[in-house]
Design brief:
By secondary structure, this protein is α+β, with helices and mostly antiparallel strands. Helices cover 27% and strands 25% of the residues. It contains 3 helices and 3 strands; from the N terminus they run H-H-E-H-E-E. The two termini are 23 Å apart.
């Protein structure tokens, strides 16, 4: 493992000024909130696993994480600061067959 002695930069520290949700993000949030099932989230700390079915070979593996995670915490009432471990998988899929899977577990 490579160690780098520098404080990680947060998304909030990386951008100047206010960031506004795009109409596309607002629709995604609304649709995802409707589609997410009612489940009970276990107590923190959390390990999350995400799988994104993406139709573009050019898509970065980490781009869908933050928007999806923000909607999950809004729906289920947890705070992403309690996530201490995460795994992200992407799978190439046909256009129109994109998807998102997730698992939220307690880390013992």
């Amino acid at each position: 493992m490579v160690y780098v002695d520098i404080k990680p930069l947060s998304v909030n520290e990386a951008w100047q000024g206010k960031r506004f949700k795009t109409p596309k993000y607002k629709k995604y949030e609304r649709d995802l909130l409707f589609l997410l099932p009612k489940i009970t989230i276990p107590p923190p700390p959390y390990r999350v696993t995400y799988e994104f079915g993406l139709s573009s070979k050019l898509a970065d593996w980490d781009n869908p994480v933050k928007p999806a995670q923000d909607v999950l915490q809004k729906k289920y009432g947890f705070n992403d600061r309690d996530i201490i471990e995460g795994h992200v998988f992407t799978k190439l899929t046909k256009k129109g067959q994109e998807y998102f899977k997730f698992l939220i577990e307690t880390v013992c």
